[in-house]
Amino acid sequence: MPVLWLFLIVLALAAMGFIAGRMRVTTAGGVRPHSLPNYYGWNVAMKVMAPALLALVVWLLVQPILVDRQVTAGLGENAVPEGSTLGLVMSDVRRVADGLDTAVGRGLITSGDADAMSAADSNVRSLLGEAGVALGSDVSPEVLEAAQRYRAMNATGDFWRTAVVLVLAIAGLAWGIAQSHGSFRARNSVETGIRMILLAAASIAILTTIGIVLSLVGNTWHFFQIYPASKFFGSFTWSPSFGGGSELGIWPLLWGTLYISIIALIVAVPIGLFAAVYLSEYAGPRMRAWAKPLLEVLAGIPTIVYGLFALLTVGPILLTVFGRDGLGWMQAGTAVMTAGLVMGIMLIPFVSSLSDDIINAVPQSLRDGSYGLGATQSETIKQVILPAALPGIVGAVLLAASRAIGETMIVVFGAGAAARLSLNPFDAMTTVTAKIVSQLTGDADFASPEALVAFALGMTLFIITLGLNVFALYIVRKYREQYE
Amino acid sequence: MTDATSQGGSRPNARPTTSLTAVGSRTKKRNASEKRFRAYGLAAIGTGLFFLVVLLSAIVSNGSSAFMQTFIEVPVYLDPAKLDKNGNRDPEDIAKVSTFGYSPLIQNAVFEQVQDKGIATEYDDAGDMKALISASAAAQLRDRVIANPDLIGETVDFQILASSRVDGYLKGRVSRDSITQDKNIDAGHLDLVDALREDGTVHKSFNFAFITGADASESRPEQAGLGVSMLGSFFMMLVVLFLALPIGVAASIYLEEFAPQNKFTDFIEVNISNLAAVPSIVFGILGLAAFIQFAHLPQSAPLVGGLTLTLMTLPTIVISTRASLKAVPPSIRDAALGVGASKMQSVFHHVLPLAMPGILTGTIIGLAQALGETAPLLLIGMVGYIATNYPDGVISGFLSPNSAMPAQIYEWAKRADPAYYERAWGGIIILLVFLLVMNVIAIILRRKFERRW
């Protein structure tokens, strides 16, 4: 039975349960029930849906994995031809099985024929072609057999799935209705259920983190099995070639990332910090009212816009000044300088609004004390407020650095594609994020080291940014405790 | 006080005796440094605003021309001998004539127009007009004829899409110098365009197709539009809205109202604050591994994009929702509990409605962020192909491959033809207009419903 139908049946049972539970309490008479009638309805509906749908979801996740594993185990050694991989054969198996399903669905063959078919005496490829599934080559007997096994297992699985879900739903219905009498505390039961839902929603954050870590660790592990980690962390060359024999050292990418981030911070930190100081210490309320939101517009602009700005506006401008016609330092519009400058612009509001908050958190009494001793406003800022706010400002700068390291679109457009270790800020360099994009959006085979290296790069990126964030939050938190 | 006087008395000549009203040299220095410091601050703000102005003016000056498009308006004779050889106006027969049957008609029409107007030109063959005409003009004419077969045999006024070179010439992107190496067009064609422009045959008009149309192949930038990818973004935002809002609100309610003070709660909070700072490209990797590699959802589908962006937006929504729940004063909860409501009822009947404006504001801002996000979409395959088809229905809107606005802009910016840069800037204008509208709605919501307690 298709999943959608199963889902709708469970919903219908739940609706029936709602009405039945509510009716049983309202029509019973006698003592006043403990809860409002709707709670009894919801109680039954919840008991129908929660176990049944949970079982359905778990089943949907687990069955493909189990079936895949069983079929793979049954494939045998010689099923994988020369120059192919187990993954490719399995995807063939899946395609053949899906094709057989389609063929049965269209009435081209009967379900029994599909199970009994053998590669020797029927042309599976042309049959599947008729069903609209194009195959690259003829179907080998092993693949066909595996596909038939795959279908059979899935059919059994589907049958039991339907059975289990329906039994759970009906059992829930019976249980819920049996509970529905006036002395039952339906509200408490429903509220416990809602609490569970809320808790589950909050746990999605954990699941996401686990998902990120698993997807990074799993694929990085694959990568290090086909490409030695010592070369990844030890080599100073990055030259992927999709034909094989590529050298994938991370250092040129890390250097490019670091260099661009440093330039971005050199642009963003002074401007952001001075802007924050002026806005919080000097500016009147009217100037604050329009300058602050205007600066923050810079933070609301999507990064793709900055990327295009770097590629088509800033790059050419820099090229006229530093290029062949000018100082001759720059070869092309895409360079570390271009990306760093534009990224710096993007980070200005980030630094300024974080520092603004921190400067405002410095108690007024410190200022008053300093003014009372005869210091000017700028002396107060330089010698009292900034030292007091320093840990927070360092935290803000670290957060900005983490943003700069993780930024993708600006470097994809602005920094160039060549990985090199150079000190000239007008050279094109590339970064970790830009290479993640280029390695995963190319036509590389997903199992090749050239594609899998992206996950190792992602892992590196994740660890660096996470470390910076944790460190920054630690500093900020430690600072906050001083004044509260 | 006594200290001060005694000290002053012991060193009577420590300072030169000057009037208190005259400014001493040290004071002058300090005042100057005060002024300098102020100037630095002003300069910093000025620089920031200057960058903003440069950015916005670059966008507007480069992108606004994408909203105008060059058309050649000529009467086209729809020759029955070519379009309907059997002469029975059978729609099937008409549909058999490919665009190759239409191209000569259009070229002839332009050539006749040139000769009728008596424009002196070096070209004496209708085929030479090809350089002026977009490759997609024939398809557009064909669509029109198939929709209305009665037109065959008549002469219809038709707005022919001009080729991107002609369009670029009118917009100043293409000049006689820049086309010396160009195989597609010669200087003579530009002379012809000048002449045709003077008599009004060639003119620019507003380019609706850019806003509503589909993407086009690499060689036809004049036809490319953002409409299909706008739909892709729309479906993605639906997914984000219907997943991130309920999940985010539920998570915030739990953390703010019900969570006990324990390790597990702390762990959730740490996770949320870290996820808010994870680079967006990492979410792209997650989407690729979890939704495409593991769950076998279709690549490039707005559903996958929406799911990925949902995970990315959740922390933003949770953080803003918690802030607005926190802003509801405890007296509201206490009053509800006092008249006998359960904790759950007090939250859902009283606290949540009061916090709703703040939650919606946060959600809209989160959606705006998700709408402009590009990096994760690159990894789940929403680039690298041409989104030419509108989705057939709601289900295919979610599941069939599509692009999204920022991904389409990325795609255009990556193409070699400079005519696509103009489209990319134009796309950015549309994207920014959407973001502006969303943010303005958020601000209005906040202004209108914000309550101070």
Can you give a write-up of this model?
The complex is a heterodimer of chains A (484) and B (453). By secondary structure, chain A is an all-alpha fold. Chain A has two domains: 3-184, no CATH class; 238-480, MetI-like fold (Orthogonal Bundle). Helix content of chain A is 75%, strand content 1%. A two-stranded antiparallel sheet of chain A has the order 1-2. In chain A, a hairpin with a 7-residue loop joins strand 1 and strand 2 (247-248). Chain A is flat. The two termini of chain A are 61 Å apart. The mean pLDDT of chain A is 85. Chain B has 453 residues and is mostly helical. Chain B folds into two domains: 66-206, no CATH class; 227-449, MetI-like (MetI-like fold, Orthogonal Bundle), CATH 1.10.3720.10. Chain B has 19 helices and three strands. Chain B has helices spanning 2-10, 25-63, 80-83, 91-96, 99-116, 137-147, 164-171, 187-198, 208-212, 227-258, 263-275, 280-294, 302-327, 330-338, 343-372, 375-379, 394-399, 405-414, 418-449; strands spanning 68-77, 155-161, 202-206. A three-stranded antiparallel beta sheet of chain B has the order 2-1-3. In chain B, helix 10 (227-258) packs parallel to helix 13 and helix 18 (405-414) runs antiparallel to helix 19. The longest helix of chain B has 39 residues, at 25-63. Chain B starts with a helix and ends with a helix. Mean pLDDT of chain B is 84; it is low at 1-10. At the A-B interface, helix 7, helix 9, helix 10, helix 11 and helix 12 of A face helix 2, helix 10, helix 11, helix 12 and helix 13 of B.
